[in-house]
Amino acid sequence: xxxxxxxxxxxxxxxxxxxxxxxxxxxxxxxxxxxxxxxxxxxxxxxxxxxxxxxxxxxxxxxxxxxxxxxxxxxxxxxxxxxxxxxxxxxxxxxxxxxx
Length: 100
Prior knowledge:
By secondary structure, the chain is mainly β. Helix content is about 5%, strand content about 60%. The chain has one domain.
């Protein structure tokens, strides 16, 4: 992430962002976690997701918006805090396999 170092990003749990096919999702980095409402779109011919979010930033209510573009197995995007910071980020796409 542009604004925060790796030590902070994985402070509570390994950082993640997740988009479900039903248009919902979640993320967690540092002391920030949120629930996502997303829309699957195209940006410059690539798969992308635009989202709004609501959650907590170190126990304080927080909300905002963001977007990601899928480029191979990498997500590149930006997250915005309402009336606050914003940061670019990159993530590696992972498939979750269901356990039997």
